[in-house]
Amino acid sequence: MLDTINLRVKTLAAVALMVMCSSMGDILLSRGMKQIGAVNISSAGALGQTFVRILINGSVWTGIALLIFCTMIYMIVLSWADYSFVQPSAAFSYAIVPVLGYLVLGEPVKTIRWAGVLFIVLGVFLISRTAPRTTEPRL
């Protein structure tokens, strides 16, 4: 029983960290690309200039670093919890991103999107009520 509780706590904590890193990584990528501006693909020179601006943008690099860290956490969590628990739980980032988009990037979020976010939150809540692992670990 205690092992099950410990597994649930460590899985939910890791998923929460994963969701925050993923969400912030995506927000920083968006911020960086908004700083760079629309990508001009009309010529190789214009595309090259954009590529250089991407390479020197701190928001883009911080976003990439957070997404890499998120992927590492994701792989670790998959080593002890079911994919059918972890992946849907990670979908909570789809609920966090509109909130961060509104608060950090100043993006307007329409009522219909908030309704969709509510459905995502409800789904993640339902999944979180199940056991993180239903299969026996392989030795």
Précis, in short:
With about 140 residues, this protein is an all-alpha fold. About 75% of the residues lie in helices and about 0% in strands.
Name the helix and strand elements from N-terminus to C-terminus, one letter apiece.
HHHHHH
Low-confidence stretches: none
Biggest sheet descriptor: none
Query: CA-to-CA gap between the ends?
Result: 21 Å
**How many discrete domains?**
1
| Mean pLDDT over the full residue set | 90
Helix content: over 70%
Tell the overall outline. elongated
Helical segment count: 6
The fraction of residues in strands falls at under 5%
- What integer value in Å does the Rg equal? 18 Å
Counting helices, strands and paired strands, the structural category is mainly alpha
Number of strands: 0
How is the secondary structure organized here?
Layout lengths: L1 H35 L7 H12 L2 H21 L4 H8 L2 H11 L7 H18 L11
Helix pairs in contact: 1-3, 1-5, 4-6, 5-6
Structure in words:
The longest helix has 35 residues, at 2-36. The protein is built from 6 helices and no strands. The chain starts with a helix and ends in an 11-residue tail after the last helix. α1 runs antiparallel to α3 (58-78). The model has no long low-confidence stretch (mean pLDDT 90). The chain has helices at residues 2-36, 44-55, 58-78, 83-90, 93-103, 111-128. It is mainly alpha-helical and 139 residues long.
